[in-house]
Amino acid sequence: MSKNKFGTFAGVFTPSILTILGVIMYMRLGWVVGNAGLIGAVIIILIAHIISVATGLSVSSVATDKKIGAGGIYYVLSRSMGIPIGGSIGIALFVGTAFSIALYLIGFAESFNAYLGFGTSINDLRITGTIALFALTSLALISTSAAIKTQFIILAAIIISLISIFLGTSEFTPSRIHLFSDENSVPLEVVFAVFFPAVTGFTAGIAMSGDLKDPKKSIPNGTLYAIGVGLFVYLLLAVFMASTIDSEVLKTDYNVLMKIAFFAPAVVAGIWGATLSSALGGILGGPRILQAMSIDKVTPKLFSKGKGANNEPVNALFLAFIIAEVGILIGELDVIARVVSMFYLTAYGFINISFFLESWANPDFQPKFKVKRWIGFI
């Protein structure tokens, strides 16, 4: 049985953009705009994207230096920077990815339960989230390529849902546009922490590094296009929400996009598709990082075992499942988002400083995709 290999669009761009335009965009961007005001929200979006663009450029440069194998960012970094640095970043990324599965599934549960009229108490969200986690883990165990094929349908659903939102009408039109946060708003650092997981999706494409036809070309192109499209959509949506929906409604109603949309079911399909596909991306990508670390003896050898022609990381998948379930039991999207932000910011900080030091001090570092080293330093 030969391995299926994916190109830039299917292997990197699509999984990345599906994760970027995911749970935070649908369920929390309005809350961010309501609390931070339009200018505050734009600043938060830009700062988060400066971090993701710098990290995306650093990773893309490192990715074109050596041969790339399975294990995503961990593999790329450990082959260029050495296994100790790669391993420390890999562990932070694996835990962050596993917790982000919980983030997406709790977002899914919030929308699913609200739309179908089920309870929205914390225990109801835990139950729905756990059932969804079981279903997705089973799908990942059955077939990776089936999981990757579903993503095109989901991408279409997200595009239709965005068109439906922009064509919608709002009975919540504000008397004036709030540009800055007011005294009853959540502090900006908390708003930033809740928003930041929105821009971490670009690592989903890199996580599939072992399944790409030409990773040295696909990773830089797919990653940077996904970040660029994500930035454009977030800025457009923030301006649209600030000008059409009152800030008090944005602060309190997480499902407001469904209410203003031209065709609400399209938004529901977009939310469910984006949250489930993002969770599936984490379920596919996270275990591959752990498996690659275990092959290098950074983590216990138990997690290096795989099954089938593609060496699917079964044992690593079970550990990711357990961490994700712990996140689901926390049950509050805003709390999980802050935990995820912490792990990802740690990992991204390490990635950028490693790239900066490597390009400054290592004469062997000869990437095909050249990036100025000060970008990593910033």
Please characterize this protein's 3D structure:
The chain is built from 16 helices and no strands. With 378 residues, the chain is mainly alpha-helical.
What's the topology here?
Elements: H1 8-20, H2 23-27, H3 29-63, H4 72-81, H5 83-116, H6 122-142, H7 144-166, H8 188-195, H9 203-206, H10 215-244, H11 247-252, H12 256-260, H13 264-295, H14 314-330, H15 333-361, H16 373-377
Highlighted features:
378 residues; mainly alpha; 16 helices; 73% helix
Helix content: over 70%
SS elements, strand count:
0
Distance N to C terminus: 46 Å
Structural class determined from secondary elements: mainly alpha
Q: What letter string, H or E per element, gives the SSE order?
A: HHHHHHHHHHHHHHHH
Low-confidence stretches: none
Can you give the mean pLDDT?
Answer: 88
Morphology call: globular
Question: What's a quick, concise take on this entry?
Answer:
This protein is mostly helical.
